[in-house]
Amino acid sequence: MNPQEFFIGIDVSKDTLDVAVRPTGEKMVFANTEEGLVMMTDFSKPFSPRLVVLEATGGWERSAVGALAAKGLPVVVVNPRQVRDFAKAKGILAKTDKIDAQVIAQFAESIRPEVRPLKTEEAQKLEALLSRRRQIVQMLTAEKNRLHSAPVWIRKDIQIHIQWLEKILDKFNKELDRLVKKSPIWQAKDKILQSAKGVGPILSLTLISGLPELGTLNRKKIAALVGVAPLNRDSGKFRGRRTIWGGRSAIRSVLLMATRVGIRFNPVIRAFYERLEKAGKKRKVAETACMRKLLTILNAMMKNRTCWQSV
To answer: Which residues contact 307 (CB under 8 A, 6 or more apart)?
Structure first.
């Protein structure tokens, strides 16, 4: 390895940023505040690192990623499962041990995950709105289910809450629509994606905000990124059932709903599903294969900038 190549791992929490540098072994801790972010980037910049790697921590990492990207540093956010599996394979930690910045730095140095385009501030806002919308829909579903079995004396209260949630949902829908109309690029992408039967506004917006790589990767890479590529579970002579795991679960759940609609109304997806069904595939296996096919087609559409009819 070139001795001038440095790799930085950052362990992010609500309050702190633990930074480790490979191969020097240097470590520093900064507060996860505006002042701490400036100090962290000032510490990292002189190394001219080949990679800076952070784990996805449910949002705590966003400010650090933004600060590093603003300094022109090659920053990558990875799935925590990837780092933990790497650490266990290397014998670095046991199942319950905490992953620290040094482990993340070793992961960066050994695996060298690919740097992908970061989301813009508007894309992050879109993703946050979609995430909150999902929560509102879940609350609405739960309240409507409760209404059926609720005693008479509390039904009025549940109905009032349902009406309030529906108003909030309508507000989010309008804000999402406004964001898309504000961006000609997003409008063009939305038009392409929604030209496919089964793809509605929510899947389209979810892909635009949560999968900026769509149209830039080949079909195998995009399937693996989302988590719809079947992975082997083999060991020695044992051949386990191929399953999907990892990837971007929020995208996968919305993609599944769209696929189920596509199986009913999209002739290409429906014919593919029926062929799998005749071959004896179980429903979940067939649905997953259809998810992968729909994603592959959408990826090709975005790559070629063509609507469904032209695919």
So the answer is: 191, 192, 195, 301
